[in-house]
Design a protein that fits this description.
This protein has helices at 3-18, 53-59, 72-81, 104-121, 144-159, 174-183, 201-207, 240-254, 292-302, and strands at 24-29, 32-37, 40-41, 44-48, 63-65, 85-90, 127-134, 165-170, 189-193, 214-219, 262-267, 312-318, 327-330, 334-342, 349-356, 378-382, 385-389, 395-404, 410-420. The protein is an alpha/beta fold and 442 residues long. An eight-stranded parallel beta barrel has the order 4-5-6-7-8-9-10-11. It has a four-stranded antiparallel sheet with strand order 12-14-17-16. A four-stranded mixed sheet has the order 13-19-18-15, with no helix packed on it. Strand 2 (32-37) and strand 3 (40-41) form a beta hairpin. It is globular, with a radius of gyration of 24 Å.
Length: 442
């Protein structure tokens, strides 16, 4: 082993050997509920993900969230070394992935596996709370899953008296709240993943019967299932400027303003992933650059703007049309596009790309493959303007723009378009596809 790596590993082992559990409790006073960690009040400004931990600290965050026990030891060690706590996720099997809650043997094995994990990590000083299951209510029918979650929560309380329990639902539904209250008495905190409907949570949770503390364990942009669609049925993604404004509004109005009931939150996603598009949820680019939404999170956590800010990319027009106009282009023809960007100078880089619409659309954040960009279709670009050639193949595409300043902070937007056969090259009319538009959440 390299000597420096050996010393780093030995140092980390020393940290673990000397570190002690930091007790976390749910407390209540005349102002409502709150967490204490090591006896001190602890409000969670958390990041959903286990990467870019230095940037969590830079933005003013104090916690990270994981979804499963993969690489748990190294993640906990790194988080603790940086002064961050961890919402430790126990990935409870999903019915939609084939887990059968009528299979008593499988349920017992799952409980045994989690028992061993809790015993192994319960005294690690980075642990904040146990997240028992994530969105197990998504496309499910067997409510025995809540019995299994109760067994896990009860086990956690018996083995680990120092950390509270929570489970996470996909949005908020009256039936699920009632089932959880009935079947999971060992639950300390109710947690919700919510995007466009975050405004409903503060009123609906108590209306549905939950009177205890709660958390928003995923929040961020408006979800791809919640936005207006083109006439051929693909969702319109908000620009990074629109998302930054939405992040600020949602944190301020529906998280921060409910202290005493909401004991913290985890913004999503502290990283990057392909989900409908390559930019929909990530606060970073694929290359690890901070985006415009990072600035928004920094602002709401620290109460001030960062010294170095991203450009502000409002929108793109293609063929002098906005995305909501459902743009159709003729195959192989050339078209111009313009981006409306604030705060860019001579050193701002503009990266344009034509990308086929993703056909690998999954549910619940499951892994998706990203389509390859067609860079050869970008013919001429001057700053915030570009000329592209429409692809030869009929179908759905997007034109992406990344505007990067000299500090490598990135603003982005994309605009969908549909390529139809060129009437100069083919005969016959083109039948345009229609689809009912969905509501838009602000």
């Amino acid at each position: 082993m390299n000597r420096l790596l050996f010393l780093a590993a030995a140092t980390m082992l020393c940290v673990n050997a000397n570190a002690q559990v930091i007790p976390v409790k749910v407390e209540q006073n005349e102002s409502g509920y709150y967490l204490t960690r090591g006896g001190e009040p602890y409000y969670v400004n958390g990041a959903g993900g286990s990467t870019y931990l230095d940037e969590v600290l830079e933005a003013g965050g104090n916690s990270i969230r994981t979804w499963a026990a993969n690489e748990a030891g190294s993640i906990l060690d790194e988080a603790h070394a940086k002064g961050l706590s961890v919402m430790f996720g126990l990935w409870v099997g999903h019915e939609r992935h084939g887990f059968d809650y009528n299979d008593e043997e499988a349920v017992a094995k799952q409980l045994e596996r989690f028992t061993n994990i809790v015993k192994k990590y319960k005294d690690h000083p980075a642990i904040l709370l146990w997240g028992i299951g994530n969105e197990v209510d998504l496309f499910y029918s067997n409510t025995k899953v809540w019995d299994a979650i109760q067994d896990i929560a009860k086990m956690v309380h018996e083995i680990d008296p120092n950390h509270p329990t929570t489970t996470v639902t996909a949005g908020l539904d009256k039936k699920e709240v009632e089932l959880i209250m009935e079947k999971v008495p060992d639950l300390d905190i109710y947690s919700v993943n919510t995007y466009g409907e975050i405004s409903d949570v503060p009123d609906n949770l108590p209306k549905y019967g939950w009177k205890g503390p709660w958390m928003i364990t995923e929040w961020g942009p408006t979800g791809h299932w919640e936005v207006q669609k083109t006439t051929w049925g693909v969702p319109l993604e908000q620009s990074s400027k629109e998302k930054a404004n939405i992040y600020t509004k949602r944190y301020t109005k529906y998280i921060k303003d409910y202290k005493g009931k909401c004991i913290g939150s985890y913004v999503f996603l502290w990283g990057q992933k392909q989900e409908t598009t390559s930019t929909w949820y990530g606060i970073f680019t694929k290359d690890g650059e901070r985006t415009e939404t990072f600035d928004a999170v920094y602002n709401v956590w620290r109460g001030k703007e960062p010294e170095v800010k991203s450009p502000r990319l409002d929108s793109i027009k293609l063929d002098n049309k906005q995305a909501k106009e459902s743009i159709y282009l003729k195959a192989t023809e050339k078209y111009s596009a313009e981006a409306f960007v604030e705060g860019f100078g001579n050193k701002t880089e503009f990266d344009w790309a034509v990308v086929p619409e993703s056909t690998d659309i999954q549910a619940g954040g499951d892994t998706e493959d990203a389509p390859e960009a067609l860079y050869t279709l970008v013919k001429k670009q001057v700053d915030n303007t570009v000329t592209i050639q429409a692809p030869k193949k009929e179908g759905a595409y997007r034109l992406f723009l990344y505007a990067k300043n000299e500090e490598k902070k990135v603003a982005y937007a994309n605009i969908p378009f549909y390529v139809v056969p060129n009437p100069d090259a083919t005969t016959g009319s083109v039948q345009l596809k229609k689809r009912t538009l969905n509501p838009v959440y602000e």
